[in-house]
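== Sequence, structure tokens ==
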Amino acid sequence: MLPRILATAAIFTTLNLSPPLRAENLQHLSQLLATKQCPQCDLEGSGLVMANLAGAQLSGANLSGAQLSRADLRGADLSGADLSGTSLYGANLSGAILIGAKLYGSDLRKAYLVNANLIGVSLDTAYMEGAIGIPNYAGTPELFHFWGIAEAEKGNYNRAVEHYNQALSINPQFAPAYLGRGLARYRLGDEPGAIQDGEIAVKFFQKQGNETGLQGAENFLEGMEFARNAPRGGGGGVEKVLGSIGGLLLRFLF
């Protein structure tokens, strides 16, 4: 599953998340903008950037490849809609109904999803960086862990911690998330929290017989200890350790 996530993310990033668009169905587009009532409509490739579609009825609509960046979709009914490859960057989907919607390769970066209904939705290949309010049931521990790594790689450590927390709320024994969270906490200057997470990761990796993870967690703790005791300006060795841990975290996804 995760190799497919990485491949899709790479492809859409390379293409700026802009799949080829076909000509809009202007009749359906006009109907939507005039009435906000367009269930089962063909809106593939439609340009709806910043559109006010709060409360719109779009159940079963084809919105694949549509441009809905920063659109207001609060409370909209998008159940069963095809949103494959759709740009929902920064869109407000608060309270929206997305039951059974298709979100293959969708761009949900910085989208607002608080109280959105995502039952029956797969976010495996959606691009979720900076999305707010993803419910726990919408992902797996591995998926939240992956999103945590993606945020950490961009220096968004607080957001990374949030994703790791969600992974652990689903599976409190998911050792990689403790290690990832420890790394993010260290970057945020919370060394006590980082040490605590590292020690918990050691415990669970050991319990699960994961020698690679155990070695990585122990290296993480040793690296922090080395940095703490190193002469001023001589703690650069910890960066090598932290870099190796970052690569190790991705290995747990395959």
The mean pLDDT is 88.
